[in-house]
Amino acid sequence: MLIYNIGHLLQVPGIFQNAFLRVENGKIAEVGLMSQAPAIQDQDIDALGRVVMPGFVDCHTHLAHAGGMNGSFAGRCNAVESISEVDLRQAIEDRLSFMESLGTTTVEIKTGYANSDEAVRKCLAAIPKRLGVVATEMSPLANVTSPRWLLRENVRFVDALCDPEGLNPDQLRAPLRMMHTPIKLHVCVSAPGDGVPLALDLNAVSVEHLLYATQRDVDLLSRSKTIAVLLPAMAFLSKAGRFAPARALLDSGVAVALATDANPGDSPTYSMPFVMQLAIGEMKMTAFEVICAATLNAARAIHEDHRVGSLVPGKDADFLILASKDYRDLPPVQRVFRSGRECLRTCAADASAPASFF
Ligand SMILES: [Zn+2]
């Protein structure tokens, strides 16, 4: 299948203008300029000069929950205790379907709402075991004084809240040092702290939130390969009164990823486009920086960059056609493709869409 007449093909990090994308057996086979495009067949798709880019990768969510927005953290933990595994899995699947309709084709799901090992086990069992879903186990946030992880077979990463409202570095250092599973950490969530030095000491894949990151943290991260995962929707929706220092991180050369932090407590959104718009408006990132942060860097943050996050030959053909011809407008998603198969045409596909909105 050929997608032709692409105005901006965001290969990430490169950009082609007037380009084509050829898909074969669910993989990207070739990209290039229209002047070198193969012959067009009946089943091929005319992009009408619009933007084509990789599907969004949401690398930080808490979809394994059963509570609504109206309630407490304890209430949400209790809801996970009482829901059946089957119903929890269906709730997660429904959320994944909605996210796909917004252009998100790969999702990381963290546990987090649990009072007991049994509830953590249920959450891990309910997370779908399939392509495009990555499970991360968080040390329980409720009723614990020391970190622990069950490490079921589908756990790809371990994570913990290293914060005054969670666990402190001294509680986390020894157990995490013994881990063979790659490490992520929630750091600088409610106050400055020593989460970043701990994460770098443990060779963590990513540090996440960074709302209260200091210049020392920025300097340390700039000398590491650890990815900064920023969650501006949480900052906005929880009225935190501040955002992570994205500009300082980027200007220091830190790899920045964006994610929704989707959860019913302090970040009730499933929308990567909303997160990207906030990153431009509130954190002064450029359109191209947010696109890289929502695709390739997000894929790197969950070790899925061998498969998705950019449109290079050999990767899965997970891509989007956007509603206008200039990516700098961050136009809405029209059509969503996963492994080369169209899985969704949004309302924007059949309407004359405005130039830019989310
Ligand atoms: Zn989180």
Write a structural description:
With 358 residues, the protein is α/β, with parallel strands linked by helices. The protein has two domains: 2-54 and 310-350, Urease, subunit C, domain 1 (Roll); 56-301, Metal-dependent hydrolases (TIM Barrel). The chain is built from twelve helices and 17 strands. Strands 1, 2, 3, 4, 5, 15, 16 and 17 form an eight-stranded mixed β-sheet that branches. The protein has a five-stranded parallel β-sheet with strand order 10-11-12-13-14. A four-stranded parallel β-sheet has the order 6-7-8-9. Residues 60, 62, 110, 186, 261 line the site of zinc ion (ZN).
Strand content: 15-25%
Query: Which small compounds were modeled alongside the protein?
Result: zinc ion
Task: Using the CA coordinates, give the radius of gyration.
Answer: 20 Å
DSSP, total strands = 17
Q: Give the class-level CATH name of the largest domain.
A: Alpha Beta
**What structural category characterises the helix and strand content?**
alpha/beta
Helix content: 25-40%
Q: Identify the CATH homologous superfamily of the largest domain.
A: Metal-dependent hydrolases
> What order do the SSEs take from the amino end to the carboxyl end, as H and E?
EEEEEEHHEHEEEHEHEHEHHEHHHEEEH
CATH level 3 topology of the largest domain: TIM Barrel
The outline comes out as globular
